[in-house]
Design brief:
Elements: H1 5-25, E1 33-36, E2 44-47, H2 49-65, E3 70-73, E4 77-79, E5 85-93, H3 95-99, E6 106-113, E7 116-124, E8 129-134, E9 137-140, E10 143-144, E11 160-163, H4 173-184, E12 187-190, H5 195-202, E13 208-211, H6 216-219, H7 222-228, E14 232-235, H8 246-249, E15 253-256, H9 259-269, H10 281-306
Pathway: Amino-acid biosynthesis; L-histidine biosynthesis; L-histidine from 5-phospho-alpha-D-ribose 1-diphosphate: step 8/9
Pfam families: Inositol_P
Organism: Durusdinium trenchii
């Protein structure tokens, strides 16, 4: 779909409205509540009045302007998700950064058509930085950008890779795949949330972003931004990220500044490996000693029986 200019302008209007709310609370004393989601690698996440008020404002504007459109939001759930056009909202992606005064959070706004992300906004209201991806192009503060413009690495061994935290990868398959990729890149970096994808799209040196356990609202807006800048963003198996594919991708995403890096990362992330239990050296040594003692005892018993 070619996204009409009025929808792109409206997405930026939503970002402006959310930013105005968030700035009222920026670096101010603010109560923080905890949301608990058992079964996730990081089961606790914070939420604030800023999150809730910013999303409520955006939802109000959508209902007024486009009452037939659906809405999926992190704080207030789903409304008309079966609609042809659905807005996906994350008022503050990176609430931990926000509540600790670090300006590397962002407001994420996506528009889906038939479940496919066709418009995405990453807005950082404190730094006044905004990425908008639509119609096959991405602009950063109104200027067109390309992910590979600034000597993006072509090999994993030269790549800088971002993830929000190493704790977001579940034990077993996810942790093992991430660990292998972490060892293959030049330097793994942490703590940027959605901001890392903006850096990747801009060609600022964040060559690769790999994450897991994301909600639909955590990544839908990022896809048009990265793709519009000439990068690639898929699930760990190289499949497109859509509303319908979320149950399969399970929030495992990879973004890269060029095809070479993306292919190399997907090759590692999609491979299947056996899940071995972790064994420490002390326990291994103890096991060897006990095994030797048991073997000696068995030999003595065998020798006694032969006499």
């Amino acid at each position: 779909m070619a996204v009409p200019g009025d929808l792109v302008a409206f997405a930026e209007e939503l970002a402006d409205a959310a930013g105005a709310v968030i700035l009222k609370y920026w670096r101010k004393p603010l109560p923080v509540e905890s949301k608990h989601e058992p079964g996730r690698p990081v089961a606790e996440s914070p939420v604030t009045l800023a999150d809730r008020e910013a999303e409520a404002k955006m939802r109000q504007l959508i209902e007024q302007r486009y009452p037939s459109h659906g809405i999926i939001g992190e704080e207030f759930g789903t409304l008309r998700s079966e609609a042809k056009m659905v807005w996906v909202l994350d008022p503050i992606d990176g609430t931990k950064s926000f509540i600790t005064g670090k300006p590397l959070f962002g407001t994420l706004i996506a528009l889906l058509e038939d479940g496919n992300p066709v418009l995405g906004v990453i807005d950082q209201c404190v730094l006044r930085e905004r990425w908008v991806g639509a119609n096959g192009r991405t602009v950063f503060n109104k200027k067109p950008i390309q992910a590979a413009d600034r000597s993006c690495a072509r090999e994993l061994k030269e790549a800088m890779m971002y993830s929000t935290t190493p704790h977001m990868f579940g034990a077993g398959y996810e942790a093992q795949r991430f660990d292998q990729l972490r060892r293959a890149v030049k330097r793994p970096l942490y703590g940027c949330d959605c901001y890392a994808y903006g850096l990747c799209a801009s060609g600022f040196g964040a060559d690769l972003v790999v994450e897991a356990d994301l909600g639909i609202y955590d990544y839908m807006a990022l896809v048009p931004v990265v793709l519009g800048a000439g990068g690639l963003m898929t699930d760990w198996h190289g499949r497109p990220l859509t509303l319908q594919s979320h149950a399969v991708s399970r929030g495992r995403v990879v973004a890269a500044g060029n095809e070479e890096l993306w292919k190399a990362a997907v090759k590692i992330l999609s491979s299947c490996v056996p899940v071995w239990p972790e064994i420490s050296w002390p326990s291994l040594a103890t096991g060897a000693v006990l095994g030797a003692l048991a073997a000696g005892l068995l030999l003595r018993r065998t020798a006694s029986g032969q006499r």
